[in-house]
Amino acid sequence: MNHIIQSVKGMHDYTPKKILIWQYIESILKRNLTSYNYQEIRFPIIERTELFKYGIGNITDIVEKEMYSFQDKKSNSLTLRPEGTIGCMRSCIKSGLLRKHSEQKLWYLGPMFRYEKPQFGRHRQFHQCGIESFGFLDPSIDFEIILLVQRILKNLNISRYVNLELNTIGSINDRMNYKKSLYLHFKKHEFLLDTDCKRRLYTNPLRILDSKNNAMTEIINTAPVLINFVSDDSLEHFEKLCKFLKKIKIPYSINYKLIRGLDYYNKTVFEWTSDKFTSKHAICAGGRYDYLSQSFGAPFIPAIGCAIGIERLILLLESLEKTWYPENFIDIFVIFSHKNIELYAIKLSENIRTAFPCRRVQVNFSNGNIKKQFKKANKLGARIVLLIGTIEVQNKTVLMKDLKFNTQKTFLIINVIQELKWFFEKYF
Ligand code: ATP
Ligand code: MG
What we know:
elongated, alpha+beta, 16 strands, binds adenosine-5'-triphosphate, 16 helices, binds magnesium ion, 5-stranded mixed sheet
């Protein structure tokens, strides 16, 4: 074979440099999720296709056009998960987690697959950090999830670049009434609808509202508005949430057009978008889905969740000044001048690793020309070089050079741990 095999369209590689940003994000996510007592759950990437059809809804963008579905060797229809909520709920019901403890606060992080048109911030394999709370009916949990995501964004230093939008879409019943009214409105103007929307008129008239066809802007703008169909119970729920947000001074705006593309949502829905992107892209989105468990034949389990798009977070972070993520790939690069010092250098590195388990220590096995070794240290992005030459071995010393500030110092090898400790305390 004499050509490079291309990766699949819309699926990306993550090189070690990208992984540095990734790990930075992941560490902040995990720290905050733990602090709100969320626990990690893992479930398969592949599920039965029908799970998504029932859960997400047949007439949604995801199920209609975006799923990676295929048949296995026994002709079962399987699908690469396009989102995590459904699999998470299925997994909790199957494992009896919700029977033992009716309240669960869970998170997961992993790849999702959607057959979308690849473009900026839109991939066919992308990653989400999903956050799901089961068993809580009161709007205080809506409030807590918003506080948690807000704290994550703050810790990532990006809260000033994002905007929180909220809406309430009422109960499933409210939405049924709304759909009927939408149907009557669009039926009157059926001759103006394009083919896609004509079909949606009979399957799911709500989806006509998502149409990007300019010819239909007018009839969409004059269509009935969902908020007028929302019942008092949902409005009260929403008012309590808004009151709490105001009290604690979390900025938000209400967007009555925010409906979300999946069938399972009810009551509160929300989205964080960023104005740093040229087109409006959500970083995180979610809402309540109190009735999803029942569509799986399980008892009523109130639920709320959201998903943070990792690639979109990375795009946002990369568009900002780069001081926030680790600058160095190697913390300590150990070099030596002759092969007979190699074991001495390895032993020193082992001691350093024991004393500083989280630091990245690399011994340069290609010994020889010291100048070349320093060049290599710079190229690899090391912060400190520890040099051991024959003189250092004789004097029981080591030379330490800080490549960032171009300073150096020689000290006794028995003091190496203490010297490094001072260095890290000062600079990290
Ligand atoms: P969009 O309106 O951008 O299509 P969505 O409503 O389909 O988003 P959700 O299903 O709510 O998205 O997923 C939650 C988050 O996952 C989004 O806010 C976004 O950050 C991210 N996301 C969704 N689809 C993609 C994709 N194709 N590529 C990258 N990130 C994505
Ligand atoms: Mg989408």
